[in-house]
Amino acid sequence: MRLLFRFLLSLSILLTLSGPARAAGLPVDLVLVLAVDVSGSMDEHEMSQQRQGYIDAIRHPAVIRAILDGEQGKIALAYVEWAGAEFQWTLIDWTLIDGPESAEAFAGLLESKPLNRSMWTAIGSAIDYSVEVIERAPYDGKRRVIDISGDGPTNRGVPSSLARDRAVAKGVTLNGLPILNDRPQPFGSPTPRQLKLDRYYESEVIGGENAFLVVAEGFDDFRVAILQKLIREIAGLPGPVRTQFAVRPGEE
Predict the structure, then answer these.
(1) Which residues, other chains included, contact 219 with Cβ-Cβ below 8 Å and sequence gap of 6+?
(2) Tens of pLDDT along 55-79?
(3) Is this structure's pTM higher than 0.90?
(4) For an engineered disulfide with 120, which of 1, 52, 84, 219 has Cβ 3.0 to 4.6 Å away?
């Protein structure tokens, strides 16, 4: 009886190991997580400007053109919001964007979502969470990218550079969009400009193949900055590690 049991157990293991591999996901040019800071350093007006910047960019004809010009002509997109170490959530889960209709549907869904806000800034925890989101994506991306925007350095959770290095080791690229401003911060904390947030993102946040950051000079510039950043990410365009945007709406 024991011999029969061992034989059946060995046969089961052999069949498991030799069985068909897990089906690959749908191929796309890019698997992209938009990881968006909603920490307490932003007021409601700034959060609204940030959200609208993403909505406008996703709808923009230049972004759609960049998607359609890819080898597969499609990307996979997820929208994550984050704040403190225990506060990350997927506002919109993986969505295939393959033209104006799907882009408009994503933008419209994002537009319908209420604004969220929580305390503290945990970029490292947001990176770890976003990597988990990427690893369960039902798509096979030629490139896997986390796009992090925010207006402050990490003050809770794991160090940003540690999480960054873990992500890069898994083949994930991290790009950044630090938002500089001089608005007074809660509890009298230094402003993003005083903290040299752009330098922090460059040394502690971005990493991986062709990683870059785009610096927005305040929330008024965010719309232009995220549009240019999305186009570069989607198209996989080479360029400088750092790009500074100080363009006002209507001047692009």
Answers:
(1) 45, 46, 49, 50, 179, 181
(2) 999 999 999 999 999 999 999 999 9
(3) no
(4) 84
